[in-house]
Amino acid sequence: MPLIHSLYPLLRPLLFKLDAETAHEWTVKMMRMAHTLGLLGTPRHDPKTAVEVLGLTFPNCVGLAAGMDKSASAVEAWFATGFGFVEVGTLTPRPQPGNPTPRLFRLKEHEAIINRMGFNNPGIDSAVHRLERRTSNGIVGVNIGKNFNTPNERAVDDYLYCLRAAYAVADYIAINISSPNTKGLRDLQAEEPLVRLLSVLKEEQMRLQAHHGRYVPLLVKIAPDLGPEQIAMLARVFTTLQIDGVIATNTTLSRDPVQTHPLALEAGGLSGAPLTNRSTEVITALRAVLPTSIPIIGVGGILGIEDATVKLQSGASLVQLYTGLVYRGPILVSQIAALKSK
């Protein structure tokens, strides 16, 4: 058993005594330090768990979701933990501090988190520089968004900048139009602005493919707070524009499962166990209307093997962890990595 698996149960009580954002920052730093000191070891992937998705071979089906490593500062450490792929970001063209603190809250009784971070990140150029220096060949996704003060009418400029910057270092690029923590961002999920945005990005993807001599898939990350008509519309747009994949889902604005909790009124997106069923419902609905050529990455409320299994059985080809990693620790990665995706 990797050392980190036995250490985390001892470290968790100490981390949970810190405020959530400080604990998050320290976790990333400790992961980076542990890897530098060789404490994480070298992952050994069972060839039987490999998954062919997006024209890529993933050593296993479990990845790190965007939001955990916004600056791409500990990518090698996450791979050493056993992840089959790592998604960094969300990254914007210009560095930004995000929303005022406090902005990250644990709802321990519900194994949940509320966050209103607001795309705090060092800017995509800084993250790309780090990714250029990495030594492993693990699969990295780069999650991109717009700066908070870029109006939606000009959002395409921000996404184009990030797409161009990330193309050479990314194995796939995720277009984040679903965070609830950047004002107006989810409006880009409406049909007209969505078609306008994705059409331009797909055209640029083709140009960049010719320039770099490699094809980097484009995925779109969507919200869980969508009705059947919206899901059908998204599937129609994704199919028409030949989007390469969908990440379902981001955090939810709903507070129904946690409405009695003292922190329920905090603004931001809710993740963790209360999101499990809703994200699975969206995956199921999407899978029913998307062509099989468009894979789904399932994320939202995966805190155990059963949660991951249900996501895969509902139509996801891969899954991602964030809140589950906070509450259950890195042993969750090994447990899910042993699953064989369909």
Unreliable spans are none
User: How much helix is in the residues?
Assistant: 25-40%
Gross morphology: globular
CATH evolutionary superfamily: Aldolase class I
Please indicate the percent range of residues in DSSP E strands (runs of 2 or more): 15-25%
**Tell me about the biggest sheet?**
8 strands, parallel, barrel
Please tell me the CATH architecture by its name: Alpha-Beta Barrel
Sheet with most strands: strand arrangement = 3-4-7-8-9-10-12-13
Separation, N- and C-terminal Cα atoms: 27 Å
H/E element string?
A: HHEEEHEEEHEHEHEHEEHEHEHH
Number of spatially distinct domains: 1
Structural class by sheet pairing and helices? alpha/beta
CATH fold-level label: TIM Barrel
Number of strands: 13
Rg of Cα set: 18 Å
| Number of continuous helical runs | 11
What integer is the average pLDDT?
94
